[in-house]
Amino acid sequence: MSARVVATAALLVTLLAWPVFAGVLPEERADILYHSYDGGGVQISGPSLLVRKSAGKDFSLAANYYVDSVSSASIDVVTSASPYKEERTQESLDATYLHGKTLMSMGYMTSVENDYEAKTAHFTVSQDMFGDLTTVTLGYSRGWDVVGRTGDPEFSEDTDRRSYSMGVSQIITKNMLLGLEFESITDEGFLNNPYRSVRYLDPQSAQGYSYEPELYPHTHTSGAFAARTRYYLPWRAALSAQYRYYNDTWDVTAHTGEVGYTHPLKNGILLDFSYRYYTQTQADFYSDLFPRAEAFNFRARDKELSAFSSQALHVGATYDIARGGWKFIEKGTVNLYLDHMMFQYDNFRDLTQPAAPGEEPLYHFDANVLQFFVSFWY
Amino acid sequence: MRRASWLWLAIGALQLCGCASFQPWVKPYERDKLADPIMAFERDPVSAAYTDHVYEAREGARGAIGSAGGGCGCN
């Protein structure tokens, strides 16, 4: 599995602990989720179990168990490697302490697969202020990864990760919320994929090009700023909108926009609809086809570093199965979420289509994502 | 100044702000709509974490995806 998948999962651990608001502990609840991703020759599925329980009035503990079972015959794999199957298991523990209007949280996560191990620790503190109209959150996380390579027991490289974040949540009116967040992430160490190759023009080759290993810089620092808002409509429904700006030291600039609508029905069903658009520029050391071998100090042909855009449609349905409570359960829901994603690359070509080097059609693919989960509050 | 000192200074500043006297323009009893679950930025953490993971694994951009509060102080 790519370093990107593991690294982002490691940083996302903070999400499970990010407070809704600082003056109260998170809700006691348990979620059992099955997820499935199918697109671009890749199938990923597995469970996720998240349980949160309070200990007294001031402490809350949360534990998450998550599995990705991967079967990959992606465009990268079919053109320069062999299809593979693997499994990643992620476990995390989080503790939250409430003191007045201050919420402090710390946690630890591990992610293990056959050729990659990641450990992440995080700390966040939130404070309600200005008559509880404003919640300010500061976060810090630190990650330590060890990158391996299947079939090469001598190969072992380290990566260190740090993340600094600050968020502000603000009540604007009786019907409107605003959230602002900035996060800076910096990585140092082995950042490329030990399996992936770049291609370069080679007149000696029958197909006109050959492959060599990709080579990334050993540092990567990024900054992202996001603004989100939700508005309560007169007929008990909610509109949402968000925008994120991203820039990094590899010269990737990205914009993300999303709009959504949440509509409750009278029979305990809640419907969600949203549309998401994403676009990015390519990294300065990315090329679909390099002019010669070892053309530059750094080189990448990872399609996630190419210029591309994507669109996603989301439909979700939630059904309240325990209205009014049942024994020790205060509330329960059954949820089905479906997402359809469309990726269109501007400088990543489909090498499965025969053509002269650099003349192949641009690559594109669609993906479907399913989430089915049951949640209980107690 | 060392990074840890900055962190404690920031936490102290946050606590001072939290204690300051302030008259909110949206009163606590006017926050019932904001407290409705349909107004939560991330209603289901287990699903939000998975969805963000799916996107971040396929995009160059990363970060600033958590719900930056979503707080309404309405409990």
What is the makeup of the main sheet of chain A? 16 strands, antiparallel, barrel
What's the multimeric state?
heterodimer
**Mean of residue pLDDT of chain B?**
77
CATH architecture of chain A: Beta Barrel
Instruction: List the secondary-structure elements of chain A in sequence, H or E.
Output: HEEEHEEEEEEEEEEEEEEE
Helix content of chain A: under 10%
Please report which band the strand proportion of chain A falls in: under 5%, 5-15%, 15-25%, 25-35%, 35-45% or over 45%.
over 45%
Instruction: Please state the structural category of chain B.
Output: mainly alpha
What is the fold named in CATH at topology level of chain A? Porin
Instruction: Please tally the helical runs of chain B, counting DSSP H or I stretches of 4 or more residues.
Output: 2
Q: Please provide the ordered H/E string of secondary-structure elements of chain B.
A: HH
Radius of gyration of chain B: 17 Å
Tally of individual helices of chain A: 2
Task: Return residue spans of chain B where pLDDT drops below 50 for at least 5 consecutive residues.
Answer: 67-75
- Radius of gyration of CA atoms of chain A, rounded to a whole number: 23 Å
Gross morphology of chain B is flat
Mean pLDDT across the residues of chain A is 92
- What is the approximate shape of chain A? globular
Main features:
heterodimer; A: 378 residues; mainly beta; Porin; 16-stranded antiparallel beta barrel; B: 75 residues; mainly alpha
Give a structural overview:
The complex is a heterodimer of chains A (378) and B (75). Chain A is mainly beta and 378 residues long. Chain A has a single domain, classed as Beta Barrel (Porin), CATH 2.40.160. In chain A, strands 1-2-3-4-5-6-7-8-9-12-13-14-15-16-17-18 form a 16-stranded antiparallel β-barrel. In chain A, strands 10-11 form a two-stranded antiparallel ribbon. Chain A has 2 helices and 18 strands. Chain A is globular, with a radius of gyration of 23 Å. With 75 residues, chain B is an all-alpha fold. Chain B has a domain at 23-60. Chain B is built from 2 helices and no strands. Chain B is flat and about 45 Å long. The termini of chain B are far apart. Mean pLDDT of chain B is 77; it is low at 67-75. The chains are: A mainly beta (378), B mainly alpha (75). At the A-B interface, helix 1, strand 1, strand 6, strand 7 and strand 8 of A face helix 1 and helix 2 of B.
